[in-house]
């Protein structure tokens, strides 16, 4: 093991700069303050940041406070020095008005920390939904050697002998409550049963999705994404992650070497096979833009739609995180896809080997949980990218279209894959909650529900609210899902086949702002279109009237950050990043 010559370490500019001995002494004395010796700091050892996303405010990632000890030991073992520091908290379920507001804020903060402090490499502690993209995006911008460590999912939840999955059980429980099968106390108990341990959501929600994709992208040690948080293996991989980052610094293996177009294409294919979250296209678009890779939204359909669903996890399937790990996790899925020639095998990963080398021969250990490619759960399980006269782009997750839904909406012999009906429009989640059970809306099984004002500007950060339940009276009649369309997001734990992430959003005066309750709308999956059935002239008139009254109204900002972000955030089809930030690339090298 040879040390990198000192002049290759960027931390040398702080601790070993003969041209500026005044500042060097100042930098040194303060970092000496907590027990690192002068000798160590000036020895040319790589200095490794541990970007800590866990805290009491972020329970999903809190176990990283424990894992960081093992990361440190790995870093020390390999000859590095560890400096742990906090990342702005993002708690998906606890942050008001929405955690969507915070991904770009955590990104910004982490860019400043990685750029402005004496760090040669960084361990990114990922987990809860947006912590993973926020960390990867910042590492992409700064482009110092970086490796992600997932905190891992919670253990499986159980209730009366059945698996209860995080998030998914909420959507089920609220239907049961609406149908009068459950009281409030029972509802809370049922939901709590799904969260039996430390870790993130045990379903294939956005957390499991984004950590699986971080591994598929090559940013995490192979086989590590799916290890449940409390398992011994999780501690062990924390140690190996710490060891590995020190060598990555010595090898100068950077995010730009790993996050290539091939890596992103692999991630899209893997996302279909795992039944990944509809938040993935937003986060991958953002990451691609920060590393400088061109990844059009349409790629999700061209590369991803035909891929079958292999992973049988809730919400698309039956099982949970522990089962996913035991069945082989990400490598087993990738090996199935590789055998079909669907993976670009030469993409490099953090361990210095290619994804092909890492995953070749990985076995499925339980075919109930991970299906072999020739016996999938569903064929053609990837996303459709929709367009039409109400928006330029939106995503539909086809793997969660239920048989009931297909029968009711997509099986008209004269018009297969299409459906026409009247719209009922809600302006934001509060409006929806207030009115959904109001009989005067006249919602029938023919109705399409619309949610607007829930995009990156309208509900700052974009709310996970498009999966709307039908009114109680329809649920008691057995109608469990209506077609839902909107400019908000949807939790990855939801099994609703909504058309969501519609861009541009109503608050940017996109077409949804022109829609009125009672308009007839046609959704056509074969053509990939959603259109309101009114003339272009009428639409133009409505647009002129909307603009004359100052555009689509949305609530005022409640915090300075809401105002700042609203002024610069882009739409979801291009990653909802801070527009302009993408011009800062590979800044550690400049
Ligand atoms: Fe944090 Fe689901 S709420 S992972
Ligand atoms: Mg979520």
UniProtKB/TrEMBL annotation:
It comes from the Bacteria. It is an enzyme of class 4 (lyase). Keywords: Iron, Iron-sulfur, Lyase, Metal-binding. Residues 368-576 form the Dihydroxy-acid/6-phosphogluconate dehydratase C-terminal domain. Gene3D superfamilies: IlvD/EDD C-terminal domain-like. Residues 45-358 form the Dihydroxy-acid/6-phosphogluconate dehydratase N-terminal domain. GO terms for molecular function: dihydroxy-acid dehydratase activity; iron-sulfur cluster binding; metal ion binding. Its EC number is 4.2.1.9. PANTHER family: HYPOTHETICAL DIHYDROXY-ACID DEHYDRATASE (EUROFUNG)-RELATED, HYPOTHETICAL DIHYDROXYACID DEHYDRATASE (EUROFUNG)-RELATED. Belongs to the IlvD/Edd family. NCBIfam families: PRK06131.1, PRK13017.1. This is Dihydroxy-acid dehydratase. It comes from Sphingobium jiangsuense. The lineage of its organism: Bacteria, Pseudomonadati, Pseudomonadota, Alphaproteobacteria, Sphingomonadales.
